[in-house]
Amino acid sequence: MTTHERQHPLAGRACRPVDRRVGRSAFTVIELLVVMSIMVILLAALVPAVFSIDEDGRLVSGVNTIEAGTKAARALAAKKRASLVDIPAATDSGVALIVTPSNELRLAINNQRATFNGRPIENDGYNGYRDAPARDYIQMPRGIGVAGIVAPNDQPGAIIPPPFAIRYDGQGALIAGIDPNWQSGNAIDVSTLVIYDDDPQGNNGQGDYDYSDVRPMGYNPNDFDPEKGALKTNTAVYDTAEGRWRLPFEVLEPVVGVVIYAKGDFEDAGGVWPSTAPTGYSSIAEWLLEVDEKTGLTKNAKVLMFSRHSGTATK
After folding, report:
1. Percent helix / strand / coil, the chain, rounded to 5
2. Per the confidence metrics, is the pTM higher than 0.85?
């Protein structure tokens, strides 16, 4: 080798095999745990959002259902007025949309033959209502509740659980005034109340419209809600002969608006309606207002108010 020749640096050394693997074929335990932790965090963030979207969708569906029911009621009121069947032109009896604790909307028409103990109830200033013939009940979306807003003589009132009535006259205008003393039995004006017969529709449609059967203190609507465990085998809450859920009482208040809420949210906030009569309140209106303040029923809910003139629902 001359002085001008250089030896290759690797000359004379043993060559090691080249590792041609591009990467590892498996995760380490630590890497797997990190990935799983990230997935858990993402799921924890996404699941409530998905449920919230689903709940919002059901609330909107509930609003649409109420609006459809009120439109049907106003249309039927105008039709009955035009035909002069059951509803004389000189009266404002019209049609009522009954909201029940069994998650139904029932179209009911005035029944001039309504009696109580053999006496026409109109003689005492009351208006009787019965289911409109050939009209199916409208079902509310599952898990969605509806509460009514009562305003005695246009004064701030109370929020009440169903049943109650959205009542229209023959022109489709809202009838919603209520005597502040109606609950005590000392009401002077009872004409706006809806007396809905919950007995079998026999006796030529007369039934037995008990206008003394008013909303009791401490009434629990869950007892009549199939979503809350009410059973059709219980004849106290389900009429097998008529094939419909019974109402707990027959005197229904007309409302000026409704609150459409998720039942689960209401209960999570402590809003289970008491099943025993409360104490320390001078009236059911005072008690229900206190219930609303404690549970925040109107929070995370949709509120619809009804126009007194047009009868339409406004958000």
Report:
1. 30, 20, 50
2. no
